[in-house]
Amino acid sequence: MNKIVINPKKMGTFKLYCPFTNEKLDNDNNSFEIYEGAGNYIFSMCEDCLFFDAGNNSEIEKYWKNSPLEAIEKFVSNHKDENILVIEVQRADETYYFGFLNEENLQLSPEEIEKRFIKEV
Fold it and tell me: The dihedral of CA 43, 75, 58, 71: what is its sign?
């Protein structure tokens, strides 16, 4: 599984974007909860706050039992032929997971992915 971990430091107001297409995701300022995806967005989940958006993906929804990470691992293992990037964001006492399809097989560093994904306003 292609996964990076982001530990954002002090953050002001920010917006979230698909790191591959630069399309803006629908989120409130200062929130990692996605209301509507864009670009190559597949899913987002919050481990501690019970937030879940499967992006109309019923397959990953059925794997959700006790842990979002288990559901993500199962989903990604069933789609090995697709290049799925999982971004884990650890902020205070909350952990968020985001999935994006890397259709163009872009080779980006974790730092570049973070800069493309989280943009301060």
Answer: negative
